[in-house]
Amino acid sequence: MNAIYLKRVAEQDIERTCEIFLDKDAWPYEESEAPDYNTLRGRVHGNLDSNSILNYLICAKNDENSVGLAFIWIPEKYQKEIEIGCTILPSHRKKGYGFMATKLLLQYGFEDMGAHRITAECNAQNTISTRILETIGFRREAVFIERLLWNGKWTDQIVYAILDREYFESIK
Ligand SMILES: CC(C)(COP(=O)(O)OP(=O)(O)OC[C@H]1O[C@@H](n2cnc3c(N)ncnc32)[C@H](O)[C@@H]1OP(=O)(O)O)[C@@H](O)C(=O)NCCC(=O)NCCS
Predict the structure, then answer these.
(1) How far apart are CA 122 and CA 130, in angstroms?
(2) Which pLDDT does position 95 carry in this prediction?
(3) Distance (Å, rounded) from C-alpha 75 to C-alpha 12?
């Protein structure tokens, strides 16, 4: 049985969600900084019922507080492709939560939403994340050269993808 579950962010989760978004150590590979608290709160609130940005708290069954955030982005023109992402708070890393959260996002995307393709975008320096995606079965489909301005340096971005048939084959 999974040690974690994903909980769609609801009204009562807004504070905790903002807290994680505002934790600088939770986003070491992001090129942009979080907005100020009020802007962020407004965005999180605006996404509660969104059909295009789904925010989830990652909850550990043996921990009363959530351990990270997970996301599903659905393009406005939905062609059965979605993008996923997640972060685990530094104090909870290396326990398998990032790996499990990614698998749960795939399970939800393919089994519940009926997606045909799931993508994930990754800073090329983020080797923990690239290893997790590759271990799970994502294919490295593109490398965008110097697409991210990260820590003051132009950095490559990798786009990964996995198809529904590849996912269903992997869980047989
Ligand atoms: C990337 C991130 C989410 C990983 O989270 P984590 O909970 O520390 O990762 P895990 O503990 O699940 O995985 C760590 C390692 O265990 C491996 N692992 C974990 N569970 C596993 C399993 N069941 N089977 C095989 N390998 C497993 C992973 O492949 C990885 O390998 P490594 O030890 O060689 O690095 C985390 O470092 C993070 O939040 N980083 C900042 C945000 C970020 O980069 N998000 C991703 C953007 S694309």
Answers:
(1) 7
(2) 95
(3) 26
Instruction: For ligand 1, say whether the CB of 86 is within 6 Å of any of its atoms.
Output: yes
Whose CA is closest to atom 10 on ligand 1?
96
Domains and CATH numbers, the chain: 4-170 (3.40.630.30)
As a whole number of angstroms, the distance between CA 163 and CA 80 comes to: 10
Rounded to 10 degrees, the C-alpha dihedral 74/75/78/79 comes to: -100
Whole-number Å distance, alpha carbon 129 to ligand 1 midpoint, is 6
Q: Whose CA is nearest to atom 12 of ligand 1?
A: 96
State the distance from the centre of ligand 1 to the C-alpha of 12, rounded, in angstroms: 28
Tell me what pLDDT residue 104 has.
98
pLDDT, mean over the chain: 96
Q: How far, in Å, is the centroid of ligand 1 from the Cα of 130? A: 9
pLDDT at 127: 97
> Is any ligand 1 atom within 6 A of the Cβ of residue 137?
no
Question: Which residue's CA is the nearest one to ligand 1's atom 36?
Answer: 88
Q: pLDDT digit string (tens) for 88-107? A: 999 999 999 999 999 999 99
Q: Residue written as tokens 């519940």?
A: 112
